[in-house]
Amino acid sequence: MKAPPSPRVALPVMCHRWAHITFVHWRYPVEAVRELVPDELAVETMDGSAWVGVTPFLMEDVRVPGLPAVPWLSAFPETNCRTYVRDARGRSGVWFLSLDAGRLLAVLGGRSGYGLPYHWSDMSVRIDRRRRRYRCRRRWPGTPGVRCDAEAEVGGVLREHEQDELAHFLTARHRLFTRVAGRLAAAEVEHPPWPLQHVELTGLDQDLLRAAGLPDPAGPPLLHASPGVDVRVGMWSW
């Protein structure tokens, strides 16, 4: 099964690469997620469940279009906690419950420019062949010390028949929703299909879900990984 097509973002306000990403998803009852999502958005479900994901990765080549990347500023770890929603126009997208980043400038820009719930955190990503080690300790704002430590062993590429509807539902997302000046806004996100891989989670110690207002998940996570994709993010619109 092929991933849904990406929109074309003709005038991006930001370009970067989401690299060495691990998707960790859990099923949740819709009612557990509903109160964390704006009333204007419906919680999107698959297989009768809402889904919440924790996605640690490395941001690379972060730049404004037309300008070169600055080495120290243009690469940093990030970990997102997110769920999936649909607006009144039937458009699917991501609602972020939290975003942790290792660069304060990125946190300030994401909070002020896009109204996203970014947190400045002490973070690292270590890649050793097929092994990935992610570390996160929240600094500001919110409760200091909220954590997400994960270790994963990446396997082979998913074959086409393994890239089912659920895999694309959880990973092929091309729109984010946020609130800007108290109003619901959306931004388009262009990227090619994820080259998805099998992955085994060999360690996870996190309280991001609890910090976001969710109960602990009831079952084991569903896992995917990817070496990454290049991304173009458009300006938000009402």
Report on the architecture of this protein.
Helix content is 11%, strand content 50%. The chain is mainly beta and 238 residues long. The chain has a 7-stranded mixed β-barrel. The longest helix is centred in the middle third of the chain and has 11 residues, at 104-114.
Low-confidence stretches: none
- Determine the N-to-C terminus distance: 32 Å
Per DSSP E runs of 2 or more residues, the count of β-strands stands at 12
The tally of helices reads 4
Radius of gyration: 17 Å
Q: If you average the pLDDT, what whole number results?
A: 96
The structural class is: mainly beta
What is the N-to-C order of secondary-structure elements (H for helix, E for strand)?
Answer: EHEEEEHEEEHEEEHE
Biggest sheet strand order reads: 1-3-4-5-9-10-12
Q: Helical percent range?
A: 10-25%
Strand content: over 45%
Q: How would you characterize the largest beta sheet?
A: 7 strands, mixed, barrel
Given the C-alpha coordinates, what overall shape results? globular
Topology:
Blueprint: E1 14-28, H1 30-34, E2 42-43, E3 50-63, E4 76-86, E5 92-101, H2 104-114, E6 118-128, E7 131-140, E8 148-157, H3 165-171, E9 175-180, E10 183-190, E11 197-206, H4 208-211, E12 222-233
Parallel strand pairs: 5-6, 5-9
Antiparallel strand pairs: 1-3, 1-12, 2-4, 3-4, 4-5, 6-7, 7-8, 8-11, 9-10, 10-12
